[in-house]
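Re: Re: ligand-bound prediction request (bumping)

Still looking for help on this. To restate: I need the protein modeled with zinc ion bound, output as structure tokens. Inputs repeated here so nobody has to scroll up.
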Amino acid sequence: MSAAMFRFIQGLPKAELHVHIEGTLEPEMVFALADRNRVSLAHTSVEALRAAYAFKDLQDFLDLYYQGGAVLRTEEDFHDLTRAYLERAAADNVRHAEIFFDPQAHTGRGVPFAAVIDGIWAALRAGERDLGLTSRLILCFLRDRDEAEAMAIFEEALPYGDRIIGVGLDSAETGHPPAKFTRVFERARAEGFLPVAHAGEEGPAAYVAEALDELQVARIDHGVRAVDDPVLVRRLADSRIPLTVCPLSNLKLGVCDRMEKHPIRALMQAGVMVTVNSDDPAYFGGYVNANYSAVQKAFDLGREELGDLARASFNASFLDAAEKALHLAELDAYLAQA
Ligand code: HPA
Ligand code: ZN
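Reply:
Sorry for the wait, this slipped through. Here it is.
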């Protein structure tokens, strides 16, 4: 990639809509927090841990992701994790971030829900003040656990509902279809939470359709397997349901074997509203600009298409119309002078 293209992506104002805060935990911070909390680790060094980040599939990744996340114990830990992500995102000119968190992964280890959300929340508020980066939080249910547990964590989160814009669905997809959580999502929608779900990452296109029909989601996270079903692709395009695509994640987890074969270009050309995101950047080798760069390189995307991806990131966000308009004006000004 030319230096000019690198600078263009760097300066492009963008929103990030698919990032797991626990997936931003860098190996250096794993060791720092293990030390602070007197937790012992399976790996002996930062290098050994990073070297273990070679995943054969989603489950292989999830095993290390939950293991790494176990060093997060206190409100301060969640604050520091979130602050580090926001600084990285701001450096990539992310102007707005919609961030997933997995409370069941923590409350199950005895960490109070309040420690998780208070730590994240304090960092988000500070980031808005001193980095100018706005944010929203999305509570994810772990789909490989049962419905009752999801309902219980939802009830525990309700008193903090003014800090949470939506609910999502993540973790091991195969064998855990969206319909397993129809009632939890019904309840969450009734309480005013916006629904999203991971679907069509490792699971089939049918899970994407099921997330639309059963969970009535406003966005699909990943959704790349939708390309296997032309009727579904049409439906996504016609209904303007956005996909939050994570190219480097898909490459690292074997969802696609070469970036040149990634479905993102075909989906864009079919008129689907596609956005580019980092998913778990500490594990997958790059933050959001690395994802834009990988796609640019694989498909030789021009400035116009990259601008379209950034525009979609704001349009697909949960910001209100006036906030979107401000970001889109900033984006247009950038594209006019870049
Ligand atoms: N897929 C499913 N669940 C996850 C992921 C992912 O990429 N990252 C964190 N939880
Ligand atoms: Zn994800």
